Amino acid sequence: MIIIGEIIKKVLRQNRFSITEFAKKINTNRNNVYDIFTRKTIDTGLLLKIGEVLDHDFFQYYITDNTKSWIVNEKQNIYTTNSEIKKLNKKISVLEKEIAIQNERLKDKEEIIALMKKSEE
After folding, report:
1. What is the spatial distance between Cα 118 and Cα 10, in angstroms, rounded to a whole number?
2. Are the beta carbons of 59 and 7 closer than 8 angstroms?
3. What are the per-10-residue average pLDDT scores of the chain (121 residues)?
4. Are 52 and 64 in contact (CB under 8 A)?
5. Could you tell me which of 11, 33, 14, 16 has the C-alpha nearest to residue 24?
6. CA distances from 70 to 25, 64, 74, 95 (A)
7. How many CA atoms lie within 13 Å of 67's alpha carbon, on the beta-carbon side?
8. pTM of the full predicted structure?
9. How many C-beta atoms surround the C-beta of residue 99 within 10 A?
10. Which fold has domain 4-62?
C-alpha cells in the first residue's frame, strides 16, 4: 500500500519548496503539512490542489493493472466506434441516394397514373 504523504513529501523536496511556502499555496499551516506527510490516504480535492501546486500527478500512484486494462479497452472501443461511425456514414450516404432514386421512380409512376386517368376520360 502506498503512503501518499511520503510521496508528497518527496516531491515537495524535489521541487525545493519550503514547508511554509507550500503551506501558503495550499491554504493551510505548517503543522497540517507535517500531518499530510504522515497520511496513508488523502481527500481527492486536497490531492488535486497539492498536485497543481507541485505540478505532479499524484493520482498515478492509484492506477492499478485493472485500471490500466480498462483504459486501454476504452481507447480500443473509441477507435472501433469511430471506424463503425465511418462505415455507418457511408451506408447512410448510399441509402440517401437510393431514396432519391426511389422518389424519382415514384414521380414517374404518379405521372403514368395521371396520364392513364386522362386517357380514360
Report:
1. 94
2. no
3. 90 94 96 95 92 91 70 55 73 86 89 87 74
4. no
5. 33
6. 35, 10, 6, 36
7. 6
8. 0.55
9. 10
10. 434 Repressor (Amino-terminal Domain) (1.10.260)
